[in-house]
Write a sequence for this structure.
């Protein structure tokens, strides 16, 4: 089948996902800016605003804005679930080929959206915004954020300057199977990389907050670190958890043998009675921990197999099939083995 000329290829459709929490003063300006930019593009679009249990007039304003703009859609949560859940809901309800995420507080600039789309057109699957000239408190936000971004890049191997920037563009195929919890929305590029996504980053405009106050505190750093541990566990051991649990169990059993050997040596050569040293108790404890760890690994292996077999998931992803009867890409979401 011949490819269509570039001029005849329809522009991919866009789903703009916006998490909203107590942004009543920002919302009218945000929708005005978004629609002004998006209506100049050839891409069909929808704007999905997820009201994350706002306690101000955000919901009533969203109702009015959706009535005036047919492209505006609203998802209203029963209570506050957090930004990760709001973005997850936006992805779940998105119906278009490209998903663009942006904050509702006007610190991200909708003018940057066409630049993100241009990089997607170059063959990338994820384009991440980088708030290079960030307009936030230097120590409480900027320096801590730089340290967190360095840590995430170092541990994950996905090199980005700004994981915390919400302004990102994704091909829907790399995010449709993602399930997020806690504070894991910032790790979406890592999940996408598991599926073989091509990722790039561009500097974007960042404005000082105009209304209200930030909902982020220093305690979020600890949550991010814990979530990073979960992400790295899933990355390395999701398909073979026995490697982690079994490895730890074998190490514990070896330590147990070494400990009881030391206790016996002390008894034979130093005449120290076994009841005068805690080594036998420690050896028994290490041996028990080792056995339990190996058993947990076996249980985890059975759960992983139940996951794959019950959902028809695969331990691999195929980007393209060539010379097959059906040459469409396989997009069965699963974790990286």
């Amino acid at each position: 089948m011949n490819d269509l000329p570039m001029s005849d290829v329809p522009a991919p459709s866009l789903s703009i996902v916006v998490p909203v929490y107590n942004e009543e003063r920002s919302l009218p300006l945000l929708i005005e800016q978004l629609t002004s930019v998006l209506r100049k593009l050839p891409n069909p679009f929808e704007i999905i605003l997820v009201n994350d249990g706002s306690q101000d007039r955000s919901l009533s304003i969203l109702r009015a804005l959706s009535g005036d703009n047919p492209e505006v859609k609203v998802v209203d949560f029963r209570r506050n679930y957090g930004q990760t859940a709001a973005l997850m809901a936006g992805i779940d309800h998105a119906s278009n080929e490209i998903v663009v995420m942006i904050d509702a507080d006007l610190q991200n600039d909708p003018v940057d959206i066409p630049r993100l789309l241009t990089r997607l057109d170059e063959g990338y699957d994820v384009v991440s915004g980088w708030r290079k000239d960030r307009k936030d408190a230097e120590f409480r936000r900027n320096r801590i954020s730089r340290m967190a971004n360095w840590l995430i890049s170092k541990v994950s191997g996905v090199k980005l300057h700004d994981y915390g920037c919400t302004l990102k563009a994704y091909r829907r195929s790399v995010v449709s199977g993602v399930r997020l919890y806690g504070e894991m929305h910032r790790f979406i590029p890592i999940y996408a990389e598991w599926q073989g996504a091509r990722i790039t980053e561009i500097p974007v405009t960042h404005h000082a907050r105009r209304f209200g106050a930030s909902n982020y505190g220093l305690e979020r750093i600890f949550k991010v670190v814990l979530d990073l541990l979960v992400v790295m566990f899933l990355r390395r051991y999701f398909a073979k958890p026995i490697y982690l649990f079994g490895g730890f169990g074998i190490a514990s059993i070896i330590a147990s043998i070494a400990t009881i050997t030391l206790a016996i040596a002390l008894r034979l050569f130093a005449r120290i009675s076994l009841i005068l040293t805690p080594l036998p108790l420690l050896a028994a404890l290490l041996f028990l921990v080792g056995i339990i760890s190996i058993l947990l690994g076996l249980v985890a292996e059975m759960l992983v197999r139940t996951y794959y077999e019950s959902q028809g998931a695969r331990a691999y992803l195929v980007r393209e099939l060539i010379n097959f009867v059906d040459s469409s890409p396989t997009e069965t979401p699963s974790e990286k083995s």
Observations:
- The radius of gyration is 25 Å.
